[in-house]
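Input C-alpha cells:
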C-alpha cells in the first residue's frame, strides 16, 4: 500500500507517499497538495523538483498555491460575478478586482478524505474525496469531488471527477511549480520549454481575457519550438514574466501540451492533458522571503507552473469552451506529468 502517515502537528493532516521506479511523490490531504516530487537526475541523484514548504503547518499561510488543487474555479472570474440560469452570483474578490482560484477559502484549504489506496508492482495510487456544500465560496450546488494521483511508468496521472445537484462553474487544476534542477539553479531562465499551442487568449487590464484568440508567432509568448524560458521573459514588463493561457487544440483528447528540459540535471518533464488550455506562470511575484523545502529562498522566477485548465473567465465568455457542470453530468479530466532524463545535456 502507499505509505500513509499522520503529521505530528496539531492539525494531524494525513499525507500519502507514492513510490515507483525511483520516483517518490508525497501528497497532503489538505488541498490534495503535492508536497514533493523526487526524481533522479542524469547522475542518479534525486532531488525535489517542485516548490514546497519544509513544515506542513506553513501551508496555512501559503499565498503561492504551492502544489495544491485549486477551484472550484481555477484562474480568474471577472469581478467575481457570473449569471447562471437567470441568477447573478457574486463571489469573493481575492485578486482585485477579480475572483482567483476559488477564493481565499477555496478547495486548496480543505481537508480531503483519503478514500482509496492501491499499490501493485507497476502502479501506486491514492484517491481523495471532498464534498463542497451548496454555497461554499459563493458557488451553487453540492459538489462531490474526487481527485486521484497514480504513479506508473514514470508518469504521475491526476484524474479529476465531479458531480453536482445544481448547475455550477467548474475549472480544476493542480498548481505545482517546477524547477527541474531541484532549485540548484535559482531561476528557470535556462530551462528549455516548448508549448504545443499556436494561440493564446489575449489579456486586457488586470489579467482578464478580452475574448480574442491571438497567434503566438512573432511574440515573446512563442514557445512553438524548444528554447530557454529566459530568452524573452524581460519583455513582459507589466506581468514581470509569463502569466498567460495557451490555447490547446483537440480538447477532450489526451495530448502532449508542454515539454520542459533542464540542461544541467538532464531532467525532463512532459505535460499531457485533455483540457483546452494551459497556463504558463513563472512565479513573477515571488520575493525571496519564503524558504522552500530545498533550503533555499524562493525568489522571482525560481520556478514555473504549467496549469492545465479551462480558459480564464470562461463563465463570462460565451465564445469560450463551456465550464458549467449540470446535474446528471459527470465531469472527468486527466493530466499526466511524465518525468525523464536526457543524459546528453550540458
Amino acid at each position: 500500500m502507499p505509505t500513509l502517515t499522520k503529521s505530528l502537528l496539531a492539525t494531524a493532516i494525513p499525507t500519502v507517499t507514492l513510490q515507483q521506479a525511483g520516483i517518490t511523490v508525497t501528497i497532503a490531504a489538505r488541498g490534495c497538495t503535492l508536497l514533493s516530487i523526487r526524481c533522479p537526475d542524469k547522475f542518479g541523484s534525486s532531488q525535489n523538483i517542485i516548490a514546497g514548504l519544509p513544515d506542513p503547518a506553513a501551508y496555512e499561510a501559503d499565498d503561492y498555491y504551492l502544489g495544491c488543487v485549486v477551484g472550484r474555479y481555477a484562474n480568474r472570474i471577472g469581478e467575481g460575478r457570473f449569471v447562471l440560469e437567470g441568477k447573478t452570483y457574486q463571489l469573493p474578490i481575492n485578486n482585485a478586482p477579480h475572483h482567483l482560484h476559488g477564493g481565499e477559502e477555496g478547495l486548496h484549504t480543505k481537508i480531503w478524505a483519503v478514500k482509496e489506496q492501491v499499490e501493485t508492482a507497476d502502479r501506486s495510487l491514492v484517491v481523495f474525496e471532498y464534498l463542497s456544500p451548496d454555497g461554499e465560496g459563493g458557488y451553487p450546488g453540492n459538489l462531490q469531488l474526487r481527485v486521484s494521483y497514480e504513479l506508473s511508468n514514470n508518469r504521475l496521472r491526476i484524474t479529476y471527477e465531479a458531480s453536482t445537484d445544481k448547475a455550477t462553474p467548474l475549472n480544476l487544476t493542480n498548481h505545482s511549480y517546477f524547477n527541474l534542477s531541484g532549485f540548484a539553479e535559482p531561476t528557470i531562465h535556462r530551462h528549455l520549454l516548448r508549448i504545443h499551442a499556436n494561440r493564446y487568449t489575449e489579456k486586457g487590464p488586470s489579467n482578464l481575457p478580452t475574448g480574442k484568440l491571438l497567434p503566438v508567432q512573432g511574440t515573446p509568448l512563442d514557445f512553438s519550438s524548444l528554447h530557454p524560458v529566459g530568452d524573452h521573459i524581460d519583455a513582459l514588463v507589466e506581468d514581470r514574466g509569463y502569466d498567460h493561457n495557451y490555447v490547446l487544440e483537440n480538447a477532450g483528447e489526451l495530448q502532449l501540451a508542454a515539454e520542459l528540459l533542464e540542461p544541467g540535471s538532464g531532467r525532463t518533464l512532459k505535460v499531457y492533458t485533455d483540457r483546452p488550455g494551459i497556463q504558463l506562470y513563472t512565479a513573477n511575484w515571488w520575493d525571496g522571503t519564503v524558504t522552500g523545502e530545498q533550503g533555499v529562498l524562493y525568489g522571482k522566477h525560481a520556478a514555473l507552473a504549467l496549469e492545465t485548465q479551462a480558459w480564464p473567465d470562461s463563465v463570462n465568455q460565451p465564445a469560450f469552451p463551456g465550464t458549467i457542470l449540470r446535474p446528471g453530468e459527470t465531469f472527468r479530466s486527466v493530466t499526466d506529468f511524465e518525468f525523464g532524463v536526457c543524459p546528453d545535456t550540458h
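The longest strand covers residues 331-341. Residues 4-10 have pLDDT under 50 and may be disordered.
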